[in-house]
What does this fold into?
Amino acid sequence: MFRVTVSALATLWFFGFALPAAAGAERVVEALFACDTDFFEVLKSERSAFRSQEVRTVLYEHLRTDIVEFDPPVEVLGLRLTSYRQDTVLNYGLRPSAFSWGFQVDETPVGTALALWKYFPGEKPFRGTVDMLQATKGYPDQPGKLFAISKPRLAGETGANLECHSGRKDLGNIWSLPDVVDLFSETWASGSRWQAWIFGWLD
It folds into this structure.
């Protein structure tokens, strides 16, 4: 009897945590589709749905990529989210000119588009190639913003990127996106936090 009770309590605890976490992750991904800065507020409020394992910054020519790896990956909307990432495009004066942000998933771009079909209805909700599928509707008053599903850009990566693209001026002329570590943690507990802070001086 005791063993049955413990098992039942463990099951209730698991679903009590898993259901709110899954709902929170779903809200974050849905907020991504609007391609505006409200997404970052939703992500911060629902960050408990994501367990960050590693934070790293990759610099390549005029592109800075900040990556937060998840462990375990997050299952939501028929997709398996493995990381969050932000790209900052820098011009020759080290001034940011454009940004992208979103999630990397295990699925292919086409598989990702199929999973998100209900959010982008219509006969042809996406256009493009096997490398990048762009949403055909959604931002008539925001021409500089774009939601897309694309192949990963870093060597050795597979799956797809689920991301928003925007020029700095199209986001209210901001100078940087929120620090990725601040989005997922309130502490300065790791060396990666200091690395991200130092590289922030480049913005």
Notes: Residues 1-18, 188-203 have pLDDT under 50 and may be disordered. Residues 2-32 form the longest helix (31 residues). Strands lie at 52-60, 63-76, 79-90, 96-105, 126-128, 132-135, 145-150, 160-167.
